[in-house]
Write a structure and sequence with these properties.
The chain has a three-stranded antiparallel beta sheet. By secondary structure, the chain is of the alpha+beta class. The protein has helices at about 5-15, 25-30, 40-50, 50-55, 95-115, and strands at about 15-20, 60-65, 70-80.
Length: about 120
């Protein structure tokens, strides 16, 4: 296995990606995010602006967490502005909207099923 494959395997086994607003507790978790090397610009954005930008559909923010410790390792944001709209504002037939909503629900449930519990009942 080449080094890139090893790195990909390591990352997929140890990190998980989730939408910023997937869980209400994320709003508290982002306050603990610190930026170690390059000042505080990135941490400041996550702490003070990311939640609102994501809520307003100006930017889509994703957290990347360590699977075991559930600590935020890093985040990334896609500035999508006019490219992103809530499903309710898009003109879709009822059947189309129902299919999309079921897909989103299944994806969210799959993410929850992928979490493992330890003997202390801590979710990771």
């Amino acid at each position: 296995m080449d080094s890139i494959s090893k790195q990909k395997k390591y990352l997929s086994e140890n990190l998980i990606v989730e939408n910023l607003r997937m869980y209400g507790l994320n709003q508290e978790d982002i306050k603990e995010f610190l930026q170690a090397k390059s000042g505080s610009v990135l941490a400041e954005y996550l702490n003070n602006k990311a939640w609102n930008d994501d809520s307003n559909n100006d930017t889509k923010v994703f957290l990347v967490r360590d699977k075991r410790a559930r600590k935020i390792a890093y985040y990334y944001a896609l500035n999508c502005g006019i490219l992103y709209k809530e499903l309710k504002t898009i003109k879709m037939l009822f059947v189309e909207r129902e299919c999309v909503e079921k897909l989103v629900k299944a994806i969210k449930q799959n993410n929850l099923d992928g979490l493992i519990k330890t003997k202390d009942n801590n979710i990771y």
